[in-house]
Amino acid sequence: MSCRVKICGITNLADALHASDCGADALGFVFYDKSPRYISPEEANQIVAQLPPFITPVALFVDAEDALIESVVSGSSRWTLQFHGNESPEQCQQWQRPYFKAIRMKPEMDILSEACRYASATAVLLDAYKAGVPGGTGEVFDWHLIPDELSKPLILAGGLTPENVEDAVNTVQPYAVDVSGGVEQQKGVKDPIKVMQFINGAKRG
């Protein structure tokens, strides 16, 4: 079964539609105002309303206030949620939407234990760890640290590019891969060629 692809850090309709046309399965929207890829709930919901069917919009939050999450999810029934901070399982569940929990690969992290805490998540997203940076580090972690016994579908993130994604898929065999900076012209603006190459590489892997 081919690997799914999430293109994250979408900030405009043109990038969203191009990624969809190239075969992306999901598009990520960042609701973290410290990120250069931040988008407002209003703008994101306008884009989501114009997405073709079978494309999953994913709302990324980092220890967000309830009011922000509500302003996003109230705009569309299509949202899946992605929590990238220190949210508890209870906080993630309360929205009664499918959600992913991001786990950053800290050296001392017990990944299996952390994944078990979020038993209600539909998937676990593993990302590189960089102190003070909740995501989008552009760095690759050691894929061999991923335990074989993960009970949840695995979304692989962290430093993926068109050049390494096929190797990543062959090595890790994740359910999905997630990319943001690796397919950009500049922060918040996608490179159409890189997006196409990344998706093709992931689906080949």
TrEMBL record:
Isomerase as UniProt keyword: yes
Annotated pathway: Amino-acid biosynthesis; L-tryptophan biosynthesis; L-tryptophan from chorismate: step 3/5
GO molecular function, one term: phosphoribosylanthranilate isomerase activity
Catalytic reaction(s) noted: N-(5-phospho-beta-D-ribosyl)anthranilate = 1-(2-carboxyphenylamino)-1-deoxy-D-ribulose 5-phosphate
Alphabetized UniProt keyword annotations: Amino-acid biosynthesis, Aromatic amino acid biosynthesis, Isomerase, Tryptophan biosynthesis
Xref: SUPFAM superfamilies: Ribulose-phoshate binding barrel
EC number: 5.3.1.24
Residues covered by the N-(5'phosphoribosyl) anthranilate isomerase (PRAI) domain: 5-200
Database matches in Pfam families: PRAI
Assigned protein family: Belongs to the TrpF family.
Protein's name in the database: N-(5'-phosphoribosyl)anthranilate isomerase
Native species: Marinomonas ostreistagni
Gene: trpF
